[in-house]
Amino acid sequence: MTDGRAEVWIEAGIREIARSGVDGVRxxxxxxxxxxxxxxxxxxxxxxxxxxxxxxxxxxxxxIAAIEQxxxxxxxxxxxxxxxxxxxxxxxxxxxxMAVELAIRQWARTDQAAADAVARVDAARLExxxxxxxxxxxxxxxxxxxxxxxxxxxxxxxxxxxERGPRKRxxxxxxxxxxxxxx
Length: 183
Prior knowledge:
This protein is mainly α. The protein has 9 helices and no strands. The protein has a single domain, classed as Tetracycline Repressor, domain 2 (Orthogonal Bundle). The chain is elongated and about 60 Å long. The mean pLDDT is 91.
């Protein structure tokens, strides 16, 4: 569907979603940001809707590939992999990544294609983390519940502006992670 040049438009669209939401993703804006003419857009996409479809496909495929890679055991215990995930998402919060995540979720409130993409990503995230919890020996139901809490924690902690210093915040995250891991 997309060649390498189409990917440039999709990446620019994702950056614009982070800045101004889906309504800000307009051909004129992206062309200006890329320093090109609108004609280049129409050689790659039939219309804005095709670009938005490409953005959703790229975002969801990237998020699913990321969680599959991040939950791969590769000789690590499930418990250690879960601890690594907590560190990954709590120590290096990406403001642009969170802006994209929130904007796509907002878009999903009014658009079925976006809602479907978010549902696929959420399902993959929950399933992969639940598999890690299952590998620690908990039941299927317990693994599903812990995976749900894990993601509530991961996203919630990244949205909180705590009036604590980095050290106190890190301690709070570590204690919370211990609760998630049943330690």
